[in-house]
Amino acid sequence: MRLEVWAPLARSVEVVGADGVRRMPLARGEHGLWRAEVPAGFLDAGYRFALDGGEPRPDPRSRWQPDGPHGASRPVDETGLRRHRRAGFRPAALREAVFYELHVGTFTPEGSYAAAREKLPHLAALGVTHVELMPLATFPGRHGWGYDGVAWYAPHPAYGTPEGLAAFVGHCHAHGLGVLLDVVYNHFGPDGCYAPAYGPYLTDRWKTPWGPAVNYDGRHADGVREFAIGNALMWLRDYGFDGLRLDAVHAIVDTGARHLLEELAERVLALGRELDREFVVIAESDLNDPRLVRPPALGGYGLDAHWCDDFHHALHAVLTRERAGYYEDFGSLAQLAAALRDGYVFQGQYSAFRGRRHGRPPEGVRPEQLVVFAQNHDQVGNRARGERLSQLLAPERLRAAAALTLLSPFTPLLFQGEEWGARTPFLFFADHQDPALARAVSEGRRSEFAPFGWNGEVPDPQAPETFLGSRLDWDERGRPAHAALLAWHRRLLALRRARRVAPGERPDVRFDEAEGWIAWRLGDVFAACNLSDAPRAVPFPDGAWQLALAEPAPAAAGAPIPAGATAVFTRGTG
Amino acid sequence: MRLEVWAPLARSVEVVGADGVRRMPLARGEHGLWRAEVPAGFLDAGYRFALDGGEPRPDPRSRWQPDGPHGASRPVDETGLRRHRRAGFRPAALREAVFYELHVGTFTPEGSYAAAREKLPHLAALGVTHVELMPLATFPGRHGWGYDGVAWYAPHPAYGTPEGLAAFVGHCHAHGLGVLLDVVYNHFGPDGCYAPAYGPYLTDRWKTPWGPAVNYDGRHADGVREFAIGNALMWLRDYGFDGLRLDAVHAIVDTGARHLLEELAERVLALGRELDREFVVIAESDLNDPRLVRPPALGGYGLDAHWCDDFHHALHAVLTRERAGYYEDFGSLAQLAAALRDGYVFQGQYSAFRGRRHGRPPEGVRPEQLVVFAQNHDQVGNRARGERLSQLLAPERLRAAAALTLLSPFTPLLFQGEEWGARTPFLFFADHQDPALARAVSEGRRSEFAPFGWNGEVPDPQAPETFLGSRLDWDERGRPAHAALLAWHRRLLALRRARRVAPGERPDVRFDEAEGWIAWRLGDVFAACNLSDAPRAVPFPDGAWQLALAEPAPAAAGAPIPAGATAVFTRGTG
Questions:
Q1: What separation in angstroms does the CA of A143 have from each of A109, A136, A156, B6?
Q2: What does CATH list as the number for B503-571?
Q3: What is the largest CA-CA distance in chain B?
């Protein structure tokens, strides 16, 4: 079996068996790669590498860390993984896509791939097209959001085996659902991270919110870039994922002539050609920068889409009237209208929250290249008490949030349980095993909210009940109020599927700040949200319109929209 | 008189007169600007600002620091400066341009604008089109290269007054010469820098070789960006400069959606429209990244040109056979040929010196957008003993260097004295007044060369003779060998002016690594350099060619090129 590890500064590399006694040397190859052919049985019980005769450490590219990041590494049978791939499955194209973000550990009471599989009929019936899994790279402890992954190539053992993951992806495909994976290339987690012992994975030239940046542009960066890009290709090729969501790309600093993201997009495209599959690469970005998704010929990185926080903030601030933190920049219907049309609210204007001008116009960005949401793991979980909109808003505002998101021109994303207005919080939880780190995380969470005058209790991320309480309660789904909201989402998604929208079409948006309503026509659908407590006469676009969905319903198309109502109309045929 | 200062975090700002007693408060305006109307006489004797009742400090935008960066600030009569502008002067367009880099302090024995003025007839006769002045922002001490400027808006007092500078620019124009200024926006010098006392000019998120980066993308960055951009506009508008050379833009880190350089280029373009003038903005960059000069519609920053180090390194390594430092990546005629064709040698290939892949193809870069040179202040001055090529190479190689540079498709730059093969070194010199800093600079210079096994003496940058010895010796110019080289440069520049080259045309380059010759045809000029010690038969392009310039001369067009010769041919008319 061929073994390979990148260790550009090592003078010797040995592979060490599970017993800590058996050893075999690796031979130095080009560009810092070390290689050996080892008997198949040597690795199966677990292995580590020893550099320069030092302490054996896990493989930074380990495919399986059943005992966590500090344990021995194991190989994985890639051919076996690929056997779960359903030949011929084609995920929905971006223009038709609706994403559903889920965290395997809290999506079901069991927190496993196997249990998640049982919920796929629910998702297929809901009408979403893609499942998006929060990060799976192995992190220390059982529970966590996954953004502190350290063994990037090894799926987190608490959720199931690598084979179980590949099978889950196959099951999603069988239900007609594409599968995306959230991957974190902007930092390594603080515990169990052995990669930097192997080479200059980190740089102190750039800082990120999590410490030193990943070295994508300094000396030896080629190996680090391959580490990230190879990881992306692994999930797509071996596990069958249909695309990736790249976490916080604004914290990936690369000053070189070919940005890591451009190279990654190009390599993913090439893999798609090789395998005759269509992958999508989607960035989380707070930059309001079209460069991310513009084609390389126009100076872009060629990613398929990026998350659009402005849309969320504009929507959230209008619906909740919250103005703390980044919501200080938002709160008007004018901004919500801009978000609905352009995605970006900040296109170069001064942002008080950032203390500087922010963004640029979304020139060359197609609507489906922006991923929008009324909620996601961050927007819920980064609140002190992890409240969902369902805990903050009356049902009519939840209906408005759903309509504004799902009938926007963009690619919508729902967060697990949002479709039935789940009342379970999604809190920040961790399970750090290192006592000092565990304490720091608990204390850090408390002090994070202190500046905002938060006086209430902040759930301890390390407490087991914080994790346990964040799991969805599927029994809620059948209760009347929840079932009604679920039906509302299903009907909106059905309307979205049926609507006829020209490529690149932007909605015609009207609003009245004083009267408190917003309405937009996109293709053959016209929707109006009356956020006020009185009926409002909303100007209808030309043409004949038929009421398709409303709660509470207006008397007819053209009649005033009742207080608090959201109403959706389709263009009549006659 | 209107006074204005940016101090976004101050609670109070007062202007303090030269006597330290007279004070007037400034009023807080928008976005951190403080303003006051002061009697004209108040400022003339010198002024400082006191923030929050603290110690008075110089104005960060001071227009004149006659006593150096630590002294009082003085206003300047901008209308008076602008009076030196010669209406209707048009500098040569980039496609016709040849730059001449000079350091005011060493260009003449006197080291002043007034003395430099006397040399303008020499430059006009040489055939260059633009003078490029090394940085003028005030730095501590009398002598220095200028890259440690701290009072960005105040011309260094050792060279003359602001009025004297404006007059010098006007004199250049009178001689038909455009004038460019080297400006340093990537860092502040280590002594006398008061700007950070006024606001968050620096960030610790990014590091540069000189310490913390300038804060162009963090909180309060708008004011810092205006500080840089306003500086660029000042030199162009008030002093009459025709363009700027931006020092080391790879150390300007801006992760926002609109890069500082793009905004700067846009604002300079707008000023040109307003004044009906054509400015150029040229970056020094080691990125091999076309983004710098591509138009904004194609994702570029829209700069006019950038320096091309690869061309220099390829040329220098071939001619000198040096392989230390960054020359380890160079040394073949194949690379020199690539440099002559594309400018960039590294277009994504692995660079051993950088320990990573470097650059990308120069797609969309027009030849005149690359500034090339056989020598410049850095390439000479960053050698331990500041040797020019004339101290390293035999005359025939100097002639080859000149032909390769001046008959390239790019925009060539000569460094002061290069045209006559000056024998005076150009050393790194400084005049730091702070004793600890002075010591650190002296010691730093010595230790810089230690790793390269440099055993000889490294001249002390702080020693007066280091500066004095770096001044040009104009008496050399008339001595036979020097005069011959000067004539060679003049004749090459005349051939360059007369040649007919299609827009965007790249040379057809041939070479023989083993035989040691390189030849290229561009438009109606064919040139060949035989770097070997035997005559070489070089294949001529189709057509009739006439010998235009050669040393030593071949028998005829088509005949072998003598050992060591450079020969230039023009297309015959018959």
A1: 13, 11, 10, 49
A2: 2.60.40
A3: 82
What pLDDT, on a 0 to 100 scale, did the predictor assign at position B572? Answer: 77
Q: Which fold has domain B94-285+292-307?
A: TIM Barrel (3.20.20)
Q: Write the residue in B219, B255, B298 that is nearest to A299 by C-beta.
A: B298
Contact B72, B160 (CB under 8 A): no
A257, A291, A355 member nearest B359 (Cβ): A257
pLDDT at A561: 98
State which fold the B2-81 domain adopts: Immunoglobulin-like (2.60.40)
Taking CB atoms and an 8 Å limit, are A222 and B356 in contact across chains?
Answer: yes
| Element holding A131 (H helix, E strand) | strand A130-133
Residue of A nearest to B292 (CA): A257
Which residue stretches of B252-349 are H helix?
260-275, 309-320, 333-342
Query: What tokens were used for A467?
Result: 């994790």
**CB < 8 Å to A360, chain B:** 257-258
In this chain, the answer to whether the domains covering A2-81 and A499-571 adopt an identical fold is yes
Could you tell me the CATH superfamily of domain A95-461?
Glycosidases (3.20.20.80)
What's the confidence (pLDDT) of residue A447?
86
Q: Which long-range contacts (CB under 8 A, 24 or more apart) does B531-537 make?
A: B531/B318, B531/B319, B531/B397, B531/B400, B531/B564, B532/B563, B532/B564, B533/B563, B533/B564, B534/B563, B535/B560, B535/B561, B535/B562, B535/B563, B536/B512, B536/B560, B536/B561, B536/B563, B537/B561
Instruction: Output phi, psi for B55, to 5 deg.
Output: -65, 135
Q: How far is B514 from chain A (nearest CA, A)?
A: 28
Mark yes or no for CB contact B217/A300 under 8 Å.
Answer: no
**Alpha-carbon torsion (B80, B105, B129, B244), positive or negative:** negative
Low-confidence residues in chain B, pLDDT < 70: 452-455, 573-574
The ranges assigned to domains in chain B are: 2-81, 94-285+292-307, 503-571
Rounded Cα gap, residues B17 and B43, in angstroms: 7
Q: How many residues does chain A have?
A: 574
The pTM is what?
A: 0.96
Amino acid A184 reads V
Residue among B205, B219, B287 whose CB faces A207 most closely: B205
Please judge whether A220 and B356 are an interchain contact, meaning their C-beta atoms are less than 8 angstroms apart: yes
Distance between CA A461 and CA A450 in Å, rounded?
A: 16
* Gap from B513 CA to chain A (nearest CA, Å): 27
Q: How far apart are the first and last CA of chain B?
A: 69
By the 8 A CB rule, do B461 and B172 touch? Answer: no
Nearest CB to A298 within list B31, B256, B299: B299
Structure token digits, residue B212: 């913390």
Determine the Cα–Cα distance for residues B570 and A6; give it in Å rounded to an integer. 55
Which residues in chain B are contacts of A345 at CB distance < 8 A? none
Return d(Cα A446, Cα A440) in angstroms, integer.
10
Predicted pLDDT of residue A540: 97
Question: Residue A455 has what pLDDT?
Answer: 63
Would you call B190 exposed, middle or buried from its count of C-beta atoms within 10 A (0-12, 13-18, 19+)?
middle
Instruction: Identify the DSSP state of B479.
Output: S
Distance CA A341, CA A519 (A): 12
Pairs of residues, one from chain A and one from chain B, whose beta carbons lie less than 8 Å apart: 90
Which residue of chain B comes nearest to A249, CA vs CA? B255
What's the CATH fold of domain A499-571? Answer: Immunoglobulin-like (2.60.40)
| Kind of pairing between the strands at A33-37 and A2-6 | antiparallel
ipTM of the complex: 0.95
In A, minimum Cα distance to B302 occurs at: A299
Cα dihedral sign for A170, A172, A177, A180? negative
Phi, psi for B157 (deg, rounded to 5): -70, -20
Distances (CA, A) of A573 to A429, A501, A538, B274: 52, 16, 22, 55
Please choose, from the candidates A236, A252, A330, the residue with its C-alpha nearest in 3D space to the C-alpha of residue A291: A252
